[in-house]
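Table S2 (text version). Query chain:
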Amino acid sequence: MKLTRCPVCHCNIHLDALIQDQAGRDLLGDVAALPDFIARPLLNYIGLFRPLKSDLSNGRALRLMREVTDEYKADHLLASALIETVNKLREKRIQFQDVKPLANHNYLKQVYKSLAVKNNVAMPTENHTHQGKAEAVQTTKPDDSQWYIEQATRMVKMGIDPLGEKSTIANKLKEMNWRPPCQQC
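Corresponding structure-token output:
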């Protein structure tokens, strides 16, 4: 089924050719599911991986796209990082006549981190599961209130006031509204 002409090369675009293989179908489905402000810069970014003398296969494009969308939340920070990465690498290619395709996502990671710091956004960390895949998890401080309570109980048993001026944990205990055992009754 002929759709229209390509706006770049003016060749006919056939829908059946686009979905010829499973990777092509998955790629179109994944792109269609993304918000427009992510899809466009992500496709431009994936284009940076295309070898000079050949096309990027649908399977590789799908894998690259999923690596990015699995690692980062599809939000404006990712869109900004993708746009900045594409612009900087295109400038570098023009300036230094460097047309080598990208090999990994390291530059995007650096740009994303720098934008996250500028915008005061918590960075996702990798949490390796038993299957070997990484899941993005927001960085949060662990709940260590139990440790403070145990330390305070130990100090009370030793005759030391955990809420006293010389206590290094007094501020945290006050935040937790902790009271010595005799005052909690």
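Notes on Table S2: The CA atoms of residues 6 and 57 lie 18 Å apart. The beta strands are 2-5, 12-14, 124-128, 134-138.
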